[in-house]
Specification:
The structure is a homodimer.
Chain A: E1 5-8, H1 12-23, E2 28-31, H2 39-43, E3 47-48, H3 52-58, E4 61-64, H4 69-77, E5 91-94, H5 100-112, E6 116-119, E7 122-123, H6 125-131, E8 134-139, H7 142-152, E9 156-163, H8 167-195, H9 200-207, H10 215-225, H11 235-252, H12 257-271, H13 283-290
Parallel strand pairs in A: 1-2, 1-4, 2-3, 4-5, 5-6, 8-9
Antiparallel strand pairs in A: 7-8
Chain lengths: 297, 297
């Protein structure tokens, strides 16, 4: 039995995910703060709601995909917010990447109204959202996750239930710690190679298949050599996630010195107006320190 | 036409490499400072020389595989050192991981005697040496590298000529910067996951296939969760290579702040007597800071 799906937040990620739901034949109700972003979805067959509360009243399952903790807070608590439409049996699926601690609080509020919550942050970028090939890290009860799974399969190819509510957000932070640590290593390695006068492509070929190998080296290394800073994921979004990582790591007492270093380096790049470039532009922080530039345009 | 091959340095790496040369049918002369280490090779068909100079006189091609720059220096310059046996047409292949700057100096000395030098540090560990599956990063002239290639194929599956003399050592440093950067990221990520109460195996499964993925995460992550600190590569050897990396990066003016951080962390672990553990024991530095321990025995 297919349930009607609400979708709140039609940014570059949410629009792709909602489109995939519609394409797979689901009955979808959408809402977005900027109303014009609903138009292409309505043209594709979705119904436009007038508020998050209305989405909640119309749909037993509501997906949220917004930017940060305060945005989810606003979706839930503003006038005509989603909590006004949640009732017994409602399931809220939050695909945003937000604070694990705040997530637990939101889930408790929804549970108080008889509903349930799963946190299901995604990775794979706008391309993954459009193609329906996202990885989804899911926290919540077994029953809620199994109820949500067939709908998440509309846009996700790897859906991993990692534990109770909040653990999806924690695993997303684990993911981001790994991503920026790899990015720092690739940045240092390529700048050293450049400074040493090495052929960067031959260098990549020599090291990428062994213990030095990573997704970041294989995928962003060649892009860095070409000085192509178009974002798969912007510095501004990366920095938002690192702020969540630093807060969460602080709260559990876990030192993340490399991640903290990368945060400071991205902060310097944001100050230079580079927040819209891809996260692989991290190397520019080292370039500015050294006066050396990787690759050639 | 097959040339006679000398092999100087029969440590855990060199013994495996020399064995593979003998197995592939090459005519091999060996020398090692501790004579008893020559015995298994002689039993397999090698001839034992009495000094590096004699190896040079007997063999047109001489491979060296020792630990560090001073060891190569001793092989070349001690009484009855290899330079005493080098003559016009000699080819010296240095498989040690040593200073790129010192390498250029050694190559010039050999060139002054009419010989040539290639630097060919390896990665893949003792297992790769024994199985003949090493990756070899090679610096030197095209002619010298092509002359050496059929012999290196006895123990190497990926042989990449990256540039002139010294560039093999530089690329090995690039490799080590990437290795320890990945190791730092994996250490921070797993300790945060542990501190957050996550299931570590489910967490690994959720993140390893995407942008967070690396050889280190896939191969050392599970070992760290099991607190198996047996070395693929020891902290002491890693630290020797990081000292080379810090010196080389300083000499070319390239900042490597993450690598420098890892060096300090490994230094603390060496002070605790952990230098013989695997380089993935890096996480223990974070554990000591936090009182949190990854995984369970």
């Amino acid at each position: 039995m297919s349930e009607r799906i609400g979708f709140v937040g039609l940014g570059i990620m949410g629009a792709g995910m909602a489109s995939n739901l519609i394409e797979k034949g689901h009955d979808v109700v959408v809402w977005n703060r900027t109303a014009s972003r609903m138009e292409p979805l309505v043209a594709a067959g979705a119904v436009a709601a007038t508020s998050p509360a209305e989405v909640g009243r119309l749909c037993p399952i509501v997906m949220i995909c917004v930017s940060d903790t305060p945005d989810v807070d606003a979706v839930l608590h503003s006038d005509d917010g989603l909590l006004g439409g949640v009732s017994v049996g409602s399931l809220v699926i939050d695909h945003s990447t937000i604070s694990p601690g705040a997530t637990v609080g939101f889930a408790e509020e929804v549970a108080g109204l008889g509903g349930s919550w799963i946190d299901a942050p995604v990775s794979g970028g706008s391309e993954g959202a459009a193609k329906g090939t996202l990885s989804i890290m899911v926290g919540g009860s077994e029953a809620a996750v199994e109820r949500a799974r067939p709908y998440m399969e509309a846009f996700g190819t790897t859906i991993t239930h990692v534990g109770p509510v909040g653990s999806g957000q924690q695993v997303k932070i684990v993911n981001q710690i790994l991503v920026v640590g790899s990015q720092l290593a690739v940045s240092e390695a390529l700048l050293f190679a450049q400074a040493s006068g090495l052929d960067l492509e031959a260098t990549l070929d020599a090291v990428k298949g062994g213990a030095a190998g990573s997704w970041m080296l294989a995928n962003r290394g060649p892009q860095m050599i070409e000085r192509d800073w178009r974002p798969g994921f912007t510095i501004d979004l990366q920095q938002k996630d690192l702020r969540l990582a630093l807060e969460a790591a602080d709260s559990v007492g876990s030192p993340i010195p490399g991640t903290a270093l990368v945060f400071q380096m991205y902060r310097a790049l944001q100050n230079e107006g580079l927040g819209g470039e891809g996260n692989h532009a991290l190397v520019k922080a080292l370039e500015k320190m050294s006066g050396i530039e990787v690759g050639s345009p």
